[in-house]
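thought: fold this chain, then report.
action: predict
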Amino acid sequence: MRPLSSRLLPLLMLLSGTVPLISSEPPAESPPATATVANQAEANAADLYRKAGNDLRPLSPEENSVVTNALRNSATESAAFPESAVSSLLAAYSSPLKLVAEAASLPRCDWGHDYSKGLSISYAHTQPLITFTRLLCVQLRLQVKRGSFTEALVTARQIVNIRRHVASEQPLAIEVLIQSSLNHLLRRAFANDLQAWPQSSLPALEQLFAPPSTASFVKAIQTETAIARTHFEQTILPSLLKAPGSDPGKAKSIITAYQADSRKIEALLQLPAAEALRQAEALRESFKRNEAQSPLTPLGLDSIVGLVGIDIKNNIYNALFQTAIDVRLHGTKAIANSRDPFGGKPFTYQEDDHDFTLTSAFIDKEKALSLTIR
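observation:
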């Protein structure tokens, strides 16, 4: 499935020639950043993230294997947890991780996106953030393994702040998708060892995962539509008016139809999960029928329907984890008070020795969405 931002790629290609949506070029070099920031209110976390990214070398296949193994199963109960290899790995990346920790402590993060050329934006800065989040999740698992829960909470807050920093104040869909990915990494890191956490730390975990955990897909759609319209009106339309034999009126009508379709998608994402999923298919058929009036919208229908599913699953997983913490705090009576975002009923609960599993009514690839707590 293509990210939602790819919906606008045909628009830019149609109206202004072949314009890549996500540039493969590296971002412009960031201003010099130091590890000591005197004024946190004015400092820009993006500068430190970029500096850390420049210091980051790609993980080797062996290092990737260590990360994968460290994030698998329980760190506190599994003898297979690679504690020594994890310690060595974190030591090897200690310098950029130190910069990341400082960046995550800053309130402001401005990636300096230039929307004057529409959505032709480089996202090269996001790949290091994904790598750093994986490393920090491994660090968190090691800290839990050693019983250092205060330090583990500090690491978790760093990950939460990185997740927040990924999206700009006017978020794009690709940024929200990346936030969801980082959210999944953090949830998985916690779920495998939640039983090991002391009761006194659980309220802090509950606060960490309190919604909203990501920016709004609705706001992202609004942002992208506004950027596309501005770019069209200020840059593309004037060129079309000067071109011999052009039909700027037709191009403008395509944009108008596209905006109307985007508003329908915004409304769809604000519906209850089950209703949103049902109406997504109906909207798909509606767009197909009106393809002559709005030829751009059908090109991104896979992304539209997929976006609804991602939004639903993200909300369900957050609710599952919140319920898991409530079970740890209040026992199984918390199940009756849980609310599955898909259908509104309580999650189902199943206990297996030391573990327990919470299950949603949402079916994904012929399997109910669930979360096992170890």
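thought: worth noting. Confidence is low (pLDDT under 50) at residues 1-35.
final: tokens above.
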